[in-house]
Structures are given as structure tokens and as C-alpha cells.
Amino acid sequence: MKRNSKLIPSMIKDQRLIAERRRQIIEGAVRLFVKKGFHKTTTREIARECGLSIGTMYEYIQSKEDVLYLVCEDIHSDLEKRLLEVVTESDSGMESLRKGLKQLFRVMDEMRPLVLLIYQETKSLPNDKMKYVLSKEEEITGLFERILHKGMQDGTIGIDPSSIKLMAHNIMVMGQMWTFRHWSLGKHYDVQEYTDRQMALLLGEFTNGGKRDGNRSDST
User: Fold this and answer.
1) Which of 34, 23, 52 is nearest to 179 (CA)?
2) Given 10, 59, 124, 138, which residue has the most CB atoms within 10 angstroms?
3) For residue 196, what is the DSSP state?
4) Residue 68 in contact with residue 117, Cβ under 8 Å?
5) Mean pLDDT of the 122-129 span
6) What is the rounded distance in angstroms from the CA atom of residue 108 to the CA atom of residue 179?
7) pTM for this prediction
8) How many Å apart are CA 20 and CA 147, to the nearest integer?
9) Which of 159, 171, 29 is nearest to 107 (CA)?
10) Which pLDDT tens digit goes with each residue over 43-92?
């Protein structure tokens, strides 16, 4: 995932040092944001948590909202990287889908506090940064769109082309559901059972749904 560093200007010119210091800031801020929330965390606390003076930290960011943006971008980058790790060109669409779904649910479980943080706090970003963060969400959803297109083309997934975008978003929501509804779902399922049941529902739709969609189109 490409990072838009222009949205966060820095007084420092050394790109290696910028990356190193911002990594410190992100790691410190994540710990505080998860524990206290964005609004209850001060920039001075972030500086202390990441081992920098407040003056030094302001050489790399300009506001607490800049820190939140860097955190959101980093979480999305990690999520996208981990999804891409399991998808290969040699796999069929269905094979890629199975691997992608398993990884999505696994990562959503491991990153639950971080995913929840993004959705709770993104609204606190300025409009330009919020739009960019949301565009990263669409890029990740686009990965499943490409998998579904591939499966439709190689004949391993039955789906109407007009349903691909909607289904890709449905997949992401199923992954995020484990984060947002874990307070209830976690009482009845562990992540493996949740994964198995959701995959059975989704894959059943892909093996039968395409034919139903096609029949429906022919009859209208």
C-alpha cells in the first residue's frame, strides 16, 4: 500500500530518520489510543510514551490528528500486506478466495483493538486525511473484487458480474463483524468456528448464487 507522506509534512529532510521516528510515534500512540481513546490522550503523553520530547515529536508531525492519520494508515497497510501474503497468481479464483477469507478472519481477530480504533476515531480526522484513510479501506475491498473477477473468469466462482462489488463489501463486513460484534459472538464461537461457518455461508452462495442471478437476469 502506497503511503501519502505529503499529507503529513516534516521539518526533517532525512527520510530514513522520518520513518524511524514516526514508527516510534505510531507504536506509542497505538498503545495509548487503545487504552484511553484518541480524545483522552494528549500529545505530551504520546511523546512520553514513544520516548521523545514534545519538541522533537513536533519535528515529525504537526498535530495529534496527524498521529491518528499515521496510525490508521499503518493499520491499513499491515492488513493489506497480510492479505496479499496468502494470495498468489497461480491459484484459481476459488483457491484465492478460500485463502483470503481465512486470512481476513484471522487478521481481524488478531487486530481487533486496532480495527475498532480506526472505525471509532476516523471521524476525528480532517476531511482530506479522512478521505484518504477511507480510500485505503476501498483498496483492501478491491482485493476481494479482483479475486471474485478472477473466479468468475476461470469458472471456479459462480457470481453475476453486477454483484461483485457488493459481495466484496459483504466479505469485508463479515470480517469486521468479528471485531464489532465480538462482545456477543465471542460468547458462542471461537474464531475458527466463526471462520468455518461464515465460509460455508459465503462459498455456498458462490457455488449456487451465480446460477440464480443468471436465471433472474434472463427472466426480467
Assistant:
1) 34
2) 10
3) H
4) no
5) 90
6) 7
7) 0.82
8) 34
9) 171
10) 999 999 999 999 999 999 999 999 999 999 999 999 999 999 998 889 99
Q: What is the pLDDT of residues 131-159, one digit of tens each?
A: 988 999 999 999 999 999 999 999 999 99
Which SS3 state, helix, strand or coil, does residue 211 take?
helix
Instruction: Name the one residue in this structure whose C-alpha cell is 471462520.
Output: 195
Q: How many CB atoms lie within 10 A of CB 203?
A: 15
Question: Residue 114: what residue type?
Answer: L
Q: Residue 87 to residues 95, 175, 217: CA-CA distances in angstroms?
A: 9, 17, 31
Residue 164 near residue 149, CB atoms below 8 Å: yes
Distance CA 206, CA 212 (A): 10
Which of 66, 105, 62, 50 has the alpha carbon at shortest distance from 82?
Answer: 105
From the list 102, 77, 80, the residue with the least C-alpha distance to 91 is 102
Rounded distance, CA 8 to CA 10, Å? 7
Strand, coil or helix: 217: helix
